[in-house]
Write a structure and sequence with these properties.
With 211 residues, this protein is an alpha/beta fold. The chain has a single domain (7-207), classed as Rossmann fold, CATH 3.40.50. It has six helices and seven strands; from the N terminus they run H-H-E-H-E-H-E-E-H-E-H-E-E. The chain has helices spanning 14-18, 32-41, 56-63, 75-88, 121-134, 167-173; strands at residues 46-49, 67-72, 92-96, 109-115, 135-146, 178-191, 195-207. Strands 3-2-1-4-5-7-6 form a seven-stranded mixed sheet. Helix 3 runs parallel beside helix 4. It is globular.
């Protein structure tokens, strides 16, 4: 998970301190949206999990046969990702990455996932464009994030509206992709300590066009 100060884009790495706890603060089970749509699409190949936190989604993808890399800016989260992968008998490559300085390779990934990765608007715009460029032709981007309607729900996520997503961000960035699934609305989530209860989310599954 990531959050950044708006001024100067300085990483607020309180997530490193939070993930030092022995328990997994978001639990060890993958996000239900990701499980449903990944299974439906039967994606294979190389997957990148962005702002992956403690690794629950990356480990799940590895269990499905993907070659998975997890990016996060909290060393403690990456350590727990490695531990969870070992406990589950799979391999996940972990990389300590500041998304402000990330080195993206074009058309590298068969699947990119970002589950509840929240950033200021300027970095978010840059991230979505980088994801678009980094997915292989025919590959997929899957994400579930809190919408800009989330704050009154008090069930998780940033309390800063600038850190929350609007539907048009996806429509604009991925206008030439095949939209497999798009949802804006309420869902119930129970994910560890920090995502609990009725929430307002955006779900997006898009496929990059074949050349």
């Amino acid at each position: 998970m990531y959050q950044y100060r708006t001024k100067g884009w300085i990483a607020m790495n309180h997530w490193h301190a939070r993930f030092l706890a022995e328990n997994y603060v978001y639990g060890t089970e993958a996000n239900v949206f990701l499980k449903k749509h990944h299974n439906k699409l039967k994606i294979l190949g190389n997957a990148l999990a962005v702002a992956e936190g403690e690794g629950r989604n990356a480990v799940y993808l590895a269990e499905q046969g993907m070659a998975v890399t997890a990016w996060d800016y909290a060393e403690s989260g990456l350590s727990k990702t490695k531990k969870l992968a070992k406990d589950r008998g799979v391999v996940v490559t972990t990389e300590l990455v500041d998304l402000n300085e990330a080195k993206w390779e074009k058309e590298k990934w068969d699947e990119i996932v970002c589950i509840y990765g929240h950033f200021p608007s300027q970095l978010r715009k840059k991230l979505l464009q980088n994801i678009k460029d980094a997915v292989k032709p025919g590959g997929y981007y899957l994400t579930e994030v809190y919408s800009h309607y989330q704050i009154p729900y008090k069930s998780g996520g940033p309390q800063d509206i600038e850190m929350l997503y609007k539907p048009e961000e996806f429509y604009h960035t991925f206008s030439n992709w095949r939209i497999v699934h798009f949802f804006l609305g309420e869902v119930e989530r129970k994910e560890g300590e920090l995502h609990n209860g009725l929430s307002h989310v955006i779900q997006f599954v898009g496929q990059k066009p074949e050349k």
